[in-house]
Amino acid sequence: MLHVFGRWLCLLILSLGLLACGGDSSRYNLAVETLTAEVEHTQYGDDVTLQFTLNSKGFDKGEVDVHFFLLSADELQQDHLIEEELAELHALAADHFPLDGKSTQHTLSVRIPEDVAGGDYQIVSYVDPNNLYNEDNENDNSPHPEHSLDEYPHAPIHVVAAPDHDHQLSNVQLGISQLILDKPGLQLAEGEIHRAEIIGHMDVRYHGSVEGVVKVLGEIDINGQWQPVHFWSVDEGANQHGGEYLDSMLVTLPLSEQANHVAFDINIDDAYIDALYQNYDAIQNNEVTIRLTLEDATGVNQAEHSDENNSVVFSVPLYFFEGEADAQPASVADAESAFKQLPGQQLLQPQVANINYAQDFNASYGNQSKFAVGVDLHGQLLLVPVVIPGARIVGEGDVFAYFFNARNTLFGISFDGSAYSNGQNTGYSTEMVIFNNTVFEDENYTAKYEKSWDRSWEEEKVLAQARFFVGPIPMQVEAGVSGNLGFELAVGYNAELYGGGDLFHVDFGAFGRGGISLLIASGGVQAVFNLIDNTFSLDSTAGFALASSEQASPHIYYSTELADDIDAVSGQFGLYADVKGIKWCKKLFIPYPCGSKTTRYDLWLYQTPSVINKTWTLLEKEGQVDI
What we know:
- InterPro entries: Ig-like_fold.
- This protein is mainly beta.
- It has helices at 2-20, 73-77, 270-278, 332-336; strands spanning 29-37, 41-43, 47-57, 63-72, 84-85, 89-98, 103-111, 119-127, 155-160, 165-174, 179-182, 198-208, 212-222, 225-228, 230-233, 244-246, 249-253, 260-267, 287-296, 311-321, 355-366, 371-384, 390-403, 406-420, 427-434, 437-445, 449-470, 473-493, 496-515, 521-545, 555-587, 590-608, 612-626.
């Protein structure tokens, strides 16, 4: 028995001796053991994926903070024997990672800052910078003066610096899915302005040492030749519609690492529309091609770094609207579309002719990955002059929004009023939906009617959540809209059918709330942001007059006007983080943490004037037709 105990004691002493002579005696330790980057050569603004091994020996619950930094390897080579603070230091990321008591593999995407000086760099890590965990060895949480270059994990990488003077155009997105033009020769109503044909936005960025001013030019491909187009501007205030079309846009680009959101609202000259129509084939796929180009307008005598990123060419499907003249139904089904069939009623015999004045408009404004808003508008006046004379007035509007790529219906409203000489299918219906819930509806069908509504609501709704990096710090953000909406509409029929008023008015701003779960940072949302302010108005009448001394035959007289006043996507919406960062020093070619300092980071999702600001008439018609 003593013999066995002696052998056990010898083995214990031997093992303790081995540990003392160089074995790892740490029972509790946190360290990044390996660190690599997917590329060895990159440039400012690029995303780089890091792969690293995190050892959490002895800790199997909770999470630990790991920070990543970009240090200048060129500066480390300019070494001295005394401690010096590193002049160039970039915080890349700070995030939580789970503890499970062993070595685990992780990946993390980091963005190379745009203010790098350029050259050779090292990406290094710092585990548990706030010393929340008691470890047996704290010296391997980051590079340490006792280390040699081969003893601390780092990823070598070469970074190309931003150019000295360069404008860049990218990420063109359209607010329309197709371009529908009026057939040449269609007479526009008096007071109707030629509305925007092509709406969208682009990202414009400037790198350099002066505040950038850039001119944006637009061209359209007409029979193989580039011809100039015009941009709507609200800055001039030149006419009753609050702006005018100009040959170009002047955009000021602040000295910033972030792209500038620039909206465009393009008008195509009538001469170009004529040329497009001459080559239009309704049975083929037709497209129109547009080129946007940046021109340096800073006024400095400095060459552009590259012209290759100054223009973008894009195409959009093209269709022509042939007009709304007297229409003979092609089939019974087409004629039946003039009527509203009520439950329990027999559909009237279809009429042999009708006149249909209608206008549709839909477009979105903004960047869907941030905030965007869209409108879908429709108005219609349908006249049935024969057999069973009648008329129908329709107005509809929808507003939808994108928050962080998530589509949300803010509200929708519809009005449908009709009157026919035999009294059947005479009446109205209306409905309003807010955030997918029907909040108001009314319907009444009778020989005569009169009704008015004046309703309003004030609403607030969180629409989406997303995670952003504000500098190196992750922030969880929720955003939504708050504001008011309603409609003020009067309808009726007593020998004259009418519907008029604001079919809807909506005024929504975007709000946000942000939170940071890291001890080293505080932050939130900074926003003064108008998402949409829009009024869609309807004013339509249709009267039924008998023959008189002044009028030889009975007839229907009519008028209709659809107008829209829109101001969408303007203001500032950004995130900020105040970060207690790490100060780094060097000595004998080795970098290491040597203190702390606070840094402010801003991430602006928007800093933009109104993406669209216009008052315009969609449709305006009046006249009479014999019964």
